[in-house]
Each structure stands twice: as C-alpha cells, then as structure tokens.
Amino acid sequence: MGTSYGTGSYHLLPYAMIAVATAYTVSGDYSIYRSQVPTKRDSPAYIKEHSVPLFLWN
User: Fold this and answer.
1) pTM of the prediction?
2) What is the DSSP string of 21-44?
3) Taking the CB of the first residue and of the last residue of the chain, which one, N or C, has fewer CB atoms within 10 A?
C-alpha cells in the first residue's frame, strides 16, 4: 500500500530498493548519531537489564 499509494504503481520499487541497499552499503559503520554506543550493553539506559543482582531480597 505504501509504494502504490504514493506513486500509483510499483514501477519505482526496484529503484528504491537499489537506492536503499547502496546507501546501507556505503554508510558502513558510520552513524548520524555522534554518541551512539556500539551495543545495547554499552548504553547507560539499559544498565539494569544487563546487571546481575548480588543480593536477592524477598
């Protein structure tokens, strides 16, 4: 629905797929986010998800 709704047909879909694949390949490990961490584990926002509790309280 997305492509045919905007253009009226699917004729542009292969070109859009090539453009996205090329951009993904060229960008590599670069990101538009300067402070982006490599993994979720390195993020301070998810520190509680990856920590091991030392004491188990009932």
Assistant:
1) 0.47
2) HHHHHHHTT--S-TT--SSGGG-G
3) C
